[in-house]
Amino acid sequence: EVQVLESGGGLVQPGNSLKLSCATSGFTFSTAWMYWYRQFPEKRLEWVARIKAKSNNYATDYTESVKGRFTISRDDSKSSIYLQMNNLKEEDTAIYYCASSFAYWGQGTLVTVSS
Amino acid sequence: EIVLTQSPTTMAASPGEKVTLTCLASSSVNYMYWYQQKSSASPKLLIYYTSSLASGVPDRFSGSGSGTSYSLTISSMEAEDAAIYYCLQLTSTPLTFGSGTKLEIK
């Protein structure tokens, strides 16, 4: 059974940092491209970041609004990915989902940026 | 950026009715992916590679299309199909979603 479990969300003040984690099992993690998506309070979905597999040199991509602030990383030995979020803004408030390509999504973790 | 435009924004269908949802891309994409989201749950994959049915998804759901025009069809609406449906393109970054179609049961 495939499992995808996000953690690390919470309430943070603008300008502060937060690190999300995503632990997975049940599929071949080492060859999977992994993604972070987010869903805003009004239900709009947005892709945040992607990290490719070792065979693709762990290449990363980001949506424009988070470039320079967010960093995606992975640890193949732990079948996990991470999202380091710095200089958070109120508009980053959303549910953050971890996903393996298009198929397996987690249940999400809520990030609230507010003073 | 490839913009995905979904239509209709909202619709209601009677049990047994055939439903077709549309997703138009501003540029050609290789494949389209469709997701169903109910209340506070995470999005659930329905269709991948435009027309392949995800595991466990009822066969009343089907997908079709090519280039810039794609559709998701429910052959016979059931009450449990009431949800928001999103399309997603993975062809080029930034990866983009449609704004969703809210489907209600009459």
What does this structure look like?
The complex is a heterodimer of chains A (115) and B (106). Chain A contains no helices and 11 strands. With 115 residues, chain A is mainly beta. In chain A, strands 2, 4, 5, 6, 9, 10 and 11 form a 7-stranded mixed β-sheet that branches. A 4-stranded antiparallel β-sheet of chain A has the order 1-3-8-7, with no helix packed on it. In chain A, a hairpin with an 8-residue loop joins strand 5 and strand 6 (60-62). Chain B is mostly beta strands and 106 residues long. In chain B, the strands form 2 sheets. In chain B, strands 2, 4, 5, 6, 9, 10 and 11 form a 7-stranded mixed β-sheet that branches. Chain B has a 4-stranded antiparallel β-sheet with strand order 1-3-8-7, with no helix packed on it. In chain B, strand 4 (33-37) and strand 5 form a beta hairpin. Chain B starts with a strand and ends with a strand. The model of chain B has no long low-confidence stretch (mean pLDDT 97). At the A-B interface, strand 5 of A face strand 5, strand 9 and strand 10 of B.
What is the overall number of helices of chain B?
A: 0
Rounded to the nearest angstrom, the radius of gyration of chain A is 13 Å
Main structural class of chain B: mainly beta
What's the helix-strand series of chain B? EEEEEEEEEEE
Total of helices of chain A? 0
Mean of pLDDT of chain A: 97
Please provide the ordered H/E string of secondary-structure elements of chain A: EEEEEEEEEEE
Most extensive protein-chain contact, per-chain counts:
A-B, 18 and 19 residues
Low-confidence stretches of chain B: none
Count of distinct strands of chain B: 11
For the terminal residues of chain A, how far apart are their CA atoms? 40 Å
Quaternary state reads heterodimer
Low-confidence stretches of chain A: none
Fraction in beta strands of chain B: over 45%
Instruction: Write down the overall geometry of chain A.
Output: globular
> How large is the share of residues in beta strands of chain A?
over 45%
